[in-house]
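[SOLVED] Need 3D model of a two-part complex

Original post:
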Amino acid sequence: MTEQAMGDAPDRDAATGTIRVLVAKLGLDGHDRGAKVVARILRDAGMEVVYTGLYKSPDEVVAAAVQEDVDVIGVSLLSGSHVPLFRELGRCLREQKADHIFVVAGGVIPEQDYAALWDSGVDAIVPQEARAELIVTTIRNLVAARGRI
Amino acid sequence: MNLFSQTALEDIREKQTAWEEKELAAALGSRPEEKPVYETECGIPLKRVYTAADIADIPADELGFPGAYPFTRGAYPTMYRGRPWTIRQVAGFGNPEATNQRYKYMIQTGQTGLSTDFDLPTLLGLDSDDPRAFGEVGRVGVAIDTVDDVDRLFDGIDLEKISVSLTINPSAWVVYAMYVAVAERRGYDLHKLAGTLQADPLKEYVAQKEWIYPVRPAVRLLRDLIMYSAKATPKINPISLSGYHLSDVGGNALQEIAFIMAFTIAYCEEVTGAGMDIDDFAPRLSFFFISHQDFFEQICKFRAARRVYAKIMAQRFKARKSESMRLRVHVQTAAMSLTKVEHHNNLMRTAIQALGAVLGGCQSMHTNGLDEAFAIPTEEAMKLAIRTQQIIRDEINVTSVIDPLGGSYFIERLTRDMETEIWKLLDEVDERGGAVKLVEEGWFQQKLADSAYATFQKIDSGEKISVGVNRYVDEASRSAEVHIHPYDEACTQLQIDRLQAVRAGRDNARVRELLKELAEQAKSDDINLLPKTIEAVKAKATLGEICAALREVWGAYAEPMIV
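Solution:
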């Protein structure tokens, strides 16, 4: 992180200057190439990354996010089930009082479904051909906007 | 016997030196080449020009003739002159009826074989009403819960006449059982059924990531399937060894072939270890490769793969039948190469990759829909994909001569270099203890993840060009949206209703008894599980129930965490 981005925020993140991200796979989608590449991109950008592995239910992802005390959940979905699964993820986040955690969506998500994802509480959608820089900035901007760092 | 005489080679070398000193030096002096290094996608260095001297070390027997050992030049003696490749577009979505309709449309458009994609719950051995199936029923493939669903899927289609490929993996043995049960119900001759199951478990753990059980029981299920199918349905290929997914998850061309050959070796050891002669099942092993972007590399990949396979079967497994050494391959163009930006460009990408597959000698092919980077293809996209193959087959005269690039100095050199690198990787797998052990340890997974990240970095830095994405970017074309295949929201409920009806109408005591017997059989390694499974599906046991019964015996798979 740059000094400027770290700012003067008083919380834990300021101490280490490290954004924590849970890279998650939801549902039964086995395509993990993208999730693993993103995990490495974020790690190379200096973030702390936890990867859930495959086949996680929305409940399990939220539980892991809370336990790992992450700032952001990054979900990669290529199975076409993003609308119901993000809806459920949003519900679980609220239910477990964890909706301060940002949700970033990636994978194969057609523009026509963007509105449904915003409604479910998704904070950012990363397009398929995004460069590493865009992925990293998206997450930094989200966290910075909240003033945690 | 070598291809060229010593005198001819000396003459060529002499003249090449002279050319390098004169014409080449002058050209390089006035205009340097664009790149310092030229290489294939998988990292094999490329010279600017190849001559006979570059292939002087390759014996003529390494090329051979089409349909004969070592099959470098093709799987069959007449290739496309005798029979063109099968146009086999995969399709599957929603309820069985929806997919059945798409099949009928595709047959009418000129498709010559069928291929089924299953939804994730079916692939993972879950019924449509399982809570874990939430949101996934009929989404990326067709939903199958019972034998009746398989019957609906192929309603009005004569399975004795058309070959059917089933892209099913961990639950493959159950779907096979249902297919056989349907065939029997319709009175077909099982010996006439033709088709292919994917059923390649090791590649699942490292690439496509659909699994139910730990690695070793999954390999045992495949063994049972291969051995049962060899006798009961001799024209069905019980496995499609899928290098495609190894590439899809990040592997380069060498990893694709070397790793899938390592898996082939593991399966052959498993089946021969159970007492079956290699020649009694090897002729029905089939393959599935990608046709990716590096045109010549991909063509040489197909040629090298055929040669490596022939040698493995002849030398390592002492096969005697020629058919046991013949690699037959279904090819799919590279979904990874498709872009969402300017998606019409995907048509061109796919057409070129398809041509590569034909020049490489494929037996059947799926060309991707141009909208595949968005969702599953629409009918219109599938029609264009079929037309692409028909244009290659019928308009441009590339099918008259077998292995038309054979003998090219470059093609033969690259084929040889790739073969050499594949053997090195196979030796490493052997030295490290073999494929099954390395899958359990995550060795392949790590190699493929590393390769995927390296590829991403090449695209991200612009070193690897993606037209419209990182080169020739047109901001105006970024917002283009296509019509997307709709998802039938009612499909889950229909599957659930049908499941309830089946459970209410069958003899539940008998189903319980059969499942108990199946679980009991699974405990001993030397019983083939297919006969009992077929009995169970006939008694209307569901796919989820059958898979669950064995999960209780074998447990679930725990994935090694590799990033």
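Edit: The two ends of chain A are 10 Å apart (CA to CA).
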